[in-house]
Amino acid sequence: MILKAKVLGSSNLGIYLRVAGRYLLTPKGVSRSLEGLADKLGLKIVEASVYESRMLGVLTVANSRALLLPSLSSERELRDLREKLDVEVHALPTTKLTALGNDIVANDYGAIVHPSFTDHELDIIAKLLGVKVMRGRVGGIPVVGSLVVANNRGCLISPSADDSELKGISDTLGVECLKGTINDGVIYVRVGLVACDSGALVGFPTTPIEIENLAEALKIEP
């Protein structure tokens, strides 16, 4: 099931939302507008903030095992999420890259990360998410988390990806990747798309052709 949504009046909902296991993390004060949509996808809404920010999709990354937050997150924010979620919640001790949602894309089989992460940081990410990790780019751009959306069935990747990048990302995530756009031609697909294994939320400008394509890519019903 693919449903259209707005967050804070914006169709760039991937900036604000993060799926972590069976939860949909939302900024505080917006959960009521998304409750019906989350129910249809089988997700439970949890309101949160990270570094006092509403941009949960930009700052966090998750699979069904763990949710990773930047080290800027407060102890109160970490404790709040640990009390509400049944997935592990960790602050990633990295000093340079803090927009984890832009810099990492992950599912339950693998993760692709920004090339600037150190070997030590790759080891930490692999251990916390419980998956193999590979550095990558899409169309030569290092913010892979903005250009790829994956669930455990498939992957939608920006049309800027070349064949070598697409194969490497597909092999690491363990799913087939298809190219496509969101929100009527936007190549940064994460900006307008939040997905789980049962469905997805997309921005209102997303066209019927884009919906059909992403349904095929993520292997969910349109």
The Rg value, from CA coordinates, equals 16 Å
Q: Largest sheet at a glance?
A: 3 strands, mixed
Q: Please indicate the count of domains.
A: 1
Reported by name, the CATH topology is L-arginine/glycine Amidinotransferase, Chain A
β-sheet strand percentage: 15-25%
Question: pLDDT below 50 for ≥5 consecutive residues: which ranges?
Answer: none
Mean of residue pLDDT values: 96
Overall geometry? globular
CATH class: Alpha Beta
Terminal-residue CA separation: 5 Å
CATH architecture: 5-stranded Propeller
Helix/strand order:
EEEHEHEEHEHEEHEHEEHEEEH
The helical percent reads 25-40%
Q: What's the total helix number? A: 8
Number of strands: 15
User: What's the oligomerization state?
Assistant: single chain
Q: Biggest sheet, strands in spatial order?
A: 1-15-14
Class by alpha and beta content: alpha/beta
Keywords:
three-stranded mixed β-sheet, L-arginine/glycine Amidinotransferase, Chain A, ribosome binding, 8 helices, alpha/beta, eIF6, single chain, protein biosynthesis, Translation initiation factor 6, 222 residues, initiation factor
Brief overview, please?
This is Translation initiation factor 6. The chain is of the alpha/beta class and 222 residues long. Helices cover 29% and strands 24% of the residues.
List the helices and strands and how they pair.
Layout: E1 2-4, E2 18-20, E3 23-27, H1 31-40, E4 44-48, H2 56-59, E5 61-62, E6 66-70, H3 75-84, E7 88-92, H4 100-103, E8 104-106, E9 110-113, H5 119-129, E10 132-135, H6 144-147, E11 148-150, E12 155-157, H7 163-173, E13 177-179, E14 193-195, E15 200-202, H8 208-218
Parallel strand pairs: 1-15, 3-4, 6-7, 9-10, 12-13
Antiparallel strand pairs: 2-3, 5-6, 8-9, 11-12, 14-15
